[in-house]
């Protein structure tokens, strides 16, 4: 397993996948293609039991979708497995026999947040992990499942706040809201996740599979609802207002490392 | 927009509605009539996008329903829009195109808590906000949606505790239980809510509308369930035991500012 | 009411039931028989309104099912009320007219955790209460409702973490995850629970009953789902792998006080 934008490291039954798509881990056709390949390869290799995602970039885990390449992304999405959206690849991952864990430092915004929301567990570095679901700044609903997951995890009021405020949420607040399992000290996060991953990988698989299936029966958003949100996102993005706002954002530095360090401020005046 | 019991102040697309129904912001026919009018007027004015509720009384946000005027209240409720209960006015607000925020200091008990639970977001002043759902002291279920909202927000055990304990919950505990979005320092609350309201009002409306609809599809209690709780409340209140308890409470100072500062103690011995 | 493994103490309308099944409060046929008898007796005695469970053992509240006596346990379960599993006795308790409270110090693992999850409220001593759902170490899903309750209380990611990690969770983390209502200082827990129990017992019963029914309508796992998890547990336990792991655990001291003080470490290498 060797990928352009994902560095893979294996330790026994645990696969560590480090997202490395400079300059800022945008989810475009390249990273999508590699994530898709990696996920299918890991799924097919019965010696792999646990899949951990992290980032080589200390400031960005996955920044968001590459808005300049959405058309190409959609082509890759369709070629790579007949799915109609990234949300459905993520949904497949939620149902995988693999146990998946996100180890988060840096920014996880937009589709990045939706990717980790589809994983089985999420741990973030206190003072380093930053979460945002900013799609409403472009007049659209999140397209990759955020409304489905956040509402189920944190309830109506907090989910509305998160998606309507277009603000950043630090790891501690993300924990209090239930966005992540736990915020941990930055210097302990790697050790914690590694130990947990190996612990789970050393336990037998059949009971885990049953547990995951039964939990999914209760808590996993239905595929039809994910599909509907993806359609609403695509429809919304076609509107002149959304297109105007995207252009205004790009003119202000959207999709550059520096400008997105404080994305909420940059998005506050696009009209 | 000018109301006897609600002071309205407008800043751009944000409407601040200050509840001001002396002596203690009881929800009776007057406050209900004004809230109903305000909500419909704001809904109809397309220049208004965000509606913030707060109180001019530092000790009481909305104390609870005025138990001495329930018959009049029900008449006003029916005249003002064909609804069968305050719960359904609140439900309408949950579905409104307006984004609604509660800025809470003082006591929010009974139907007051149910009012803010129907809003989109709730922020409270640490050390000042006080929450209570005390209806079981009068042998009835809350009639305005508390059982529906609290159970969905905080789970079975905490919802039962809150409704059966007849205790006050401070803002910090209310945050830990998910009753509110967040407790904030009292001297920062107003600035925080104002900034959030203006931020949301400055963002485009269509995406927000879609997000709110999709979140409601998942998390909003069904109108039939709200109606059923309202019926159970009204039925329960007719029982001799409930009437006896109401009379005993009124004799002990229920519905007076001083006696309700520590309402849980006063309600602990009505039998 | 007098039982071999449960000491009963009555104060007015509150019944305190102290689990006392040396050497470590395993749930075997004896404790099950006594809990079942106690619950039915309390249910039948209309003078009893609130039932509080605690333990005489400072280290163990209920350790877990006695794996050496599962066959006998199943016989007792069937004799004592036509139920097919402990999960359904617990489910009956969730629907009881009695208000039930767990006062937790010591270890609450496996079916012990599932027992308290079926009660109406759970409070634990900070630094003393320890929670674990370790069934996946034996390649099985929890059989007494944990997957149903934990997923509804804490969401998908935390429920998966808890059931797949086979780790202990202290009272503070259990509160943050929503496993319990609240963690309280160890020296205040008894006073707090006693006051709450008497407060609830002094309030009228009809409204409480309505509230509990309405909350159950929303949040209680369906009996069929509990039954299904119980079947999956029993099926899973019959597998050679599960039997081998049980034997390996027993050889390492499973079901002894000392070895279970740090059960997660002991279970980490059974293969």
Describe the structure.
Three copies of one chain form a homotrimer. Chain A has 271 residues and is α/β, with parallel strands linked by helices. Chain A has one domain: 2-enoyl-CoA Hydratase, Chain A, domain 1. Helix content of chain A is 51%, strand content 18%. Chain A has helices at 29-44, 70-79, 86-94, 111-118, 146-165, 171-177, 186-202, 205-219, 223-237, 240-251, 257-261, 263-266, and strands at 6-11, 14-19, 50-55, 60-62, 99-109, 121-132, 169-170, 182-184. In chain A, strands 1, 2, 3, 4, 5, 6, 7 and 8 form an eight-stranded mixed sheet that branches. In chain A, β2, α1 and β3 (50-55) form a beta-alpha-beta unit. In chain A, α1 packs parallel to α2 (70-79). Chains B and C meet through α5, α9 and α10 of B and α7 and α8 of C.
Superfamily (CATH H level) name of chain A? 2-enoyl-CoA Hydratase, Chain A, domain 1
In whole angstroms, the N-to-C terminal distance of chain A is 45 Å
- Roughly what percent helix of chain A? 40-55%
Q: What would you say the CATH architecture of chain A is?
A: Alpha-Beta Complex
Q: Of all protein chain pairs, which has the greatest interface, and how many residues does each chain bring to it? A: B-C, 38 and 32 residues
Furnish the topology, listing elements before pairings.
3 copies of one chain form a homotrimer.
Chain A: E1 6-11, E2 14-19, H1 29-44, E3 50-55, E4 60-62, H2 70-79, H3 86-94, E5 99-109, H4 111-118, E6 121-132, H5 146-165, E7 169-170, H6 171-177, E8 182-184, H7 186-202, H8 205-219, H9 223-237, H10 240-251, H11 257-261, H12 263-266
Parallel strand pairs in A: 2-3, 3-5, 4-5, 5-6, 6-8
Antiparallel strand pairs in A: 1-2, 6-7
Helix pairs in contact in A: 1-2
């Amino acid at each position: 397993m060797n990928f352009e934008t994902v560095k893979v490291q294996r330790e026994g039954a645990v696969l560590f996948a480090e997202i490395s798509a400079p300059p800022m881990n945008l989810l475009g056709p390249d990273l999508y293609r590699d994530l898709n390949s990696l996920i299918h390869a890991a799924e097919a290799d019965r010696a792999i039991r646990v899949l951990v995602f992290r980032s080589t970039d200390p400031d960005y885990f996955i920044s968001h979708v590459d808005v300049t390449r959405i058309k190409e992304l959609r082509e890759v999405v369709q070629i790579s497995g007949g799915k109609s959206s990234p949300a459905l690849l993520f949904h497949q991952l939620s149902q995988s026999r693999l146990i998946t864990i996100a180890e988060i430092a840096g920014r996880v915004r937009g589709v990045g947040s939706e990717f980790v929301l589809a994983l089985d567990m999420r741990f973030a570095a206190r003072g380093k992990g930053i979460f945002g679901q900013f799609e409403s700044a472009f007049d659209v609903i999140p397209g990759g499942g955020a409304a489905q997951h956040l509402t189920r995890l944190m309830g109506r009021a907090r989910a509305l706040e998160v998606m309507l405020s277009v603000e950043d949420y630090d790891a501690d607040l993300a924990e209090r809201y239930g966005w992540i399992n736990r915020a941990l000290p930055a210097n302990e996060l790697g050790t914690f996740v590694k130990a947990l991953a190996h612990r789970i990988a050393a336990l037998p698989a059949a009971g885990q599979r049953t547990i995951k299936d039964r939990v999914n029966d209760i808590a996993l958003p239905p595929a039809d609802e994910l599909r509907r949100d993806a359609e609403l996102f695509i429809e919304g993005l076609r509107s002149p207002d959304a297109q105007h706002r995207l252009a205004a954002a790009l003119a202000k530095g959207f999709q550059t490392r520096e400008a997105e360090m404080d994305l909420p401020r940059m998005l506050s005046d696009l009209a």
